[in-house]
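Checklist before submission:
- one chain only
- standard amino acids only
- sequence pasted in full

Submission:
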Amino acid sequence: MISQGDEAEILARVRGGESAAYGELVLRHAPVAKRTAVFLGAGADADDVVQEAFVKAYRALGGFREGSAFRPWLLRIVANETRNVVRSRSRRSRREELAAPLDVVLDPAEQAVTLERRQELLTAVRALPDNMRQVVTCRYLLDLDEQETAVVLGWPRGTVKSRLHRALGRLRTSLPDKEVQR
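Returned file contents:
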């Protein structure tokens, strides 16, 4: 992972007119941006969402607060773009929305979990209401901390905590014979 100091140096180069430096940020953050888009519902449109988010982020760099972390800021743009895509998708089926191949979006550490169990868990997460699904996705599938999750979703930190608590309670109920992190 890129340090915040390295990010600040790269961002300074981009702001100084070195557009190729932005490519370094894209390469480092594209995988998590794609996972974010997929897990928040972009499905097959995840690549388009990520591309649009990086373009918007580049155009909005002037408004990026110096000293802030780039990743949560970018992921908030990805989350907003994903919401736009999902909202505009009126005729597609739910199945098509979630049609991203699991092997592409999961980290190698997840390979230890059986496919069946992973499917059960993802199905249970997808069945959650949107606000609960989003917070579980950010905290556990994307491994963001509470503050990063709050930035990405545009919610106060307390809202992240309360919705996460309710979401985990629902998952415990829907997966009673499975372990759900407390």
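Reviewer check: Residues 93-98 have pLDDT under 50 and may be disordered.
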